[in-house]
Amino acid sequence: MVKIFLKNWPVILLLFLALLTRFIFLSYPSEVVFDEVHFGKFVSSYFNHEYYFDIHPPLGKLMIAGFFWISNKATISDPEKTFSQIGENLDKNILFSLRFLPAFFGALLVVLVYKLVIVFGFSKKSAFLAGFLVLFDNAFLVQSKFILVDIFLVFFGTLSLYFYFLYRKKPILILFILSAIFAAFSFSIKWTGLSFYFLIFIAFLVDTARNFKIRDFIVKTLILIIIPFLVYLLVFVIHFKILSEPGSGDTFMNRDFQNLNLWQKFIELNQTMLKRNSEIKASHPFSSKWYQWPIIKKPIFYWLKNLNGRIGNIYLLGNPLVWWPVLVSIIFSFFIILRRKFRRKLPLLFYFFLSGYFINLLPYIAISRVTFLYHYLPSLLFGILILVFFWEKVISPSRFSYYLIFLALVFFSFLVLSPLTYGFLISPKANEIYNILIKFLS
After folding, report:
1. Residue 128: which of 21, 14, 18 has the closest Cα?
2. Cβ-proximal residues to 210 (8 Å cutoff; 6+ apart), any chain
3. Over the stretch 80-139, which tens digit does the pLDDT of each residue have?
4. Exposed/middle/buried for 380, CB within 10 Å: 0-12, 13-18, 19+?
């Protein structure tokens, strides 16, 4: 037992800290926070079987509802009266159960990033650094603490990459199939998860070009097309099966929607989701553009409480000691690529990381609908991989003290911002200081 701990202490430590940071104060605030007002209603709809409409695929909502039903199925007695507005008081047990799965997957993501970096062939120090940066990034943490689904998207997308690169090391077909399944899970949360699917497809084509075998190519292409489609379809089958009664979502659909067969309902709903996504014109005071995200511009205001003269705020705000070094790494990447003598030495893995960063970021140039800082999280993950790549290849051979200092600074920055992450009640003077920071970033 001691040998196992000594051998795996970095991943055990990361898991412990991830569970601690994600689950501590999980039922606080015992009020509806930000988009919980929407996702809470969607989840509640599964309990009264009334059809609802959302512009995103249903897997994330199904997961939260399923876990809630298993763990605490008798607590929502009147779903229509819950999640009526931001700030609404709710039972702590209800909120803990509904927030449990995002927190759990947020914790697992930290460990998964560690394991992914190991599969890439990097050192344990580099893997620990990558996991540590995800662990103590305040934005990743905030998105893991509430009834929100983005953390599922990032987790399943990362898991699909893990199984694909594990397959490259151990060419067992089931690993390839698992990669396709989890990529489908990612875009069954939100369509932006397609970025991970495209990255796997690109990696597959590059690998195939190196050692082309027609039968192998056909089999794996079919796997990457058929299995994700079947997974995506199955999610909607479950969704329709549960939401068997008329509901608020019917107003978005054809008059005969509830009488259509499964395939027609599937097609119509996806067409309507696409149409409604493109038609969104609403503005939001905390929305932001893609080019603002890397510098943490426009943090998102999630919650406010004023109690006995003390003030609590929750913001989605990235850790500057994570986000800004990532931005520097991206800029440095272009400097290296432009230098011919350096460009020749860069492995394909580096270009894969860089592609992952921009494939997740640049589509937002063409998106006219309102976007937010949390849309940057998939790109940030690849940015962290780029930062770790430079640590492994450039900085690591130098003094270990730099490594420890950087970890300490990241942790210190996390602690400084933690009142805005957890919503701690602080004095008016302290609140003024944080307001200055928010105004600076806004």
Report:
1. 14
2. none
3. 567 888 888 888 988 999 999 999 999 999 999 999 999 999 999 999 999 999 999 999
4. buried
